[in-house]
Request: fold
Amino acid sequence: MAVICTLAILFLVQPGYASNHFPDYPVRPAGEYANKVAKAGLIIAVEPVEDPEQQKTYFNSHLSSKGILPVFIIIQNTSATDAYLFDKSAVGLGDAAEVTGKGARKTASRLGSGGLVDLTLINDATQVRENLVKKEVRSKTLSPGSSLYGFVYVPVPTDAPRKKMHLQVPLANAQSGETEVVNLFF
Reply:
């Protein structure tokens, strides 16, 4: 009987790690975002999450104070016939990221190709890091009518206002092989 009671308690009690849930960032159609570009049957939009309270809500951390700006990206393929290949590793900053101020060395050490923050270079194995990885945009083939979304993480200064940023998003047409580079400024 004691064994059954113990098993029942183990199944009913949530482990501590299961109680931390970070809500998903709200997703709208790409055309509804203020910062968007339409090109070659694609709509690409970005929305930087700069508000510390929003960062706390969706990431359980004030990331900007750590030199990281989460930028939500959504790509919608509105073409009726063309598929596009999105390679996350090809996305990058159009201008070299200049990281300055307090924590600059630590932030610069996290940069991957394209000047974006490479989450695999963050040694911290916390739930916050796991959440960042979970919400990061993934490479995908966008068939006609489909979309994808997630976050890229951009380095920002910790002790000064950030400068205007230029994000380049290359998308390759799966049929022709031609690459469209979409430039977004925020």
Q: What stands out?
A: The first helix runs from residue 2 to 12.
